[in-house]
Amino acid sequence: MTRKHLKLFLILFIIAACAIALGSWLGRAKPVKVLVAEVAPGSVQDTVSNTRAGTIKACRRAGVSPSIAGKIDALPVKEGDVVKQGDLLMALWNEDTEAQVKLAKSEAVAAKARATQACVLAEVARREADRQRTLENRNLASEEVVDKSDGEARAQAAACDAAKASSQVSHSQLDVAQAALDKTRLTAPFDGVVAEVNGEIGEIVTPSPVGIPTPPAIDLMDITCLYVSAPIDEVDAPRIKLKMPAKISLDAYSGKVFAGVVRRIAPYVLEVEKQARTVDVEVDFVCQQDCAGMLPGYSADIEIIVAEKTSVLRVPSEAVLEGNSVLVLSDDNVLVARKIKTGLSNWEWTEVSDGLEPGDVVVISVERDGVKDGALAEREADKTANQ
């Protein structure tokens, strides 16, 4: 082999070696990027959540309407007004009933005066009868005069009783007239905020027909006390008890969680849909001061804490695969499938009773392509398990 041929051979050998090295480098498996979490102790809660959005409601709410028909004569409140118990909300035209009340008051005064007069005459007649009886004992008055004065005294006493009874009748008639007047006036049954007013001055209002609900004339709410009412699936409802702690979240207060406590569990199941039967559960705010600025009608979600463990080993729930296994990132950056035993669990955390140790790193981005047992992996971000 000539020197020229040897040089050409060396060049071809070097090119082939480079090609093989390049092919090997290109064919090498690339690590898949994964999100991971370090296993650490923390608290885990077993919770029950509502199936559909709940609603903020006022502890006291009244839809008040007149019990009689009439024309609206006064409407001193408007929507949003704050009122005190007993404040006038609406008045119907009532000049006729006001006149009847005035007449009844006058008649009651006159009847009382007549009763006083009759009773004074009865007292005078009784004293006269007693005097005649004394004179008879001294033989200074005849029996006829004594009998006459005694009968007059009894008659005047009866007249006094009749006048008193008449006075009581007059007062009862005044009460009837006053009750009729009160029917024309709507007053606040408690302190609250006027949520809705249905009617204008001059309009005619009528009571709701039997069995046909109509909007109230005034919708009054006490917004100083609010609670959440939410539907819970019938399967989860038996696990809930009164006074259980709960967490409340609202779309209007994104990212903020309020403490609550179960105040009521409905004693019946609602069949809203054939395949969705629920039980209404009501949750009170633990601190009603947190409700400042909230409005009845806000949508809300509840998470009732059925059980809780603290300082237990836990992993993010999204890291747990079907069959209770997780992918652990080894020291040499290889993913290793590992079986675990689980305890309490919710949508965020799962308790691990066996199969992992504190400091182990598990994959939480298990849905990514290429994330499987034996794959080479590279950390993209960490989620601390003891947050």
What does this protein structure show overall?
With 387 residues, this protein is of the alpha+beta class. It is 28% helix and 38% strand. A hairpin with a 6-residue loop joins strand 11 (245-250) and strand 12 (257-265).
As a percent range, the share of helical residues equals 25-40%
Low-confidence stretches: none
Q: For the terminal residues, how far apart are their CA atoms? A: 74 Å
Structural class: alpha+beta
The strand order across the widest sheet is: 3-10-14-12-11-15
Series of secondary-structure elements, N-terminal to C-terminal: HEEEEEEHHEEEEEEEEEEEEEEE
Envelope shape:
rod-shaped
Output the CATH class name of the largest domain. Answer: Mainly Beta
The tally of domains stands at 4
How would you sum up this structure in a few lines?
With 387 residues, the chain is of the alpha+beta class. The chain is built from 3 helices and 21 strands. Helix content is 28%, strand content 38%.
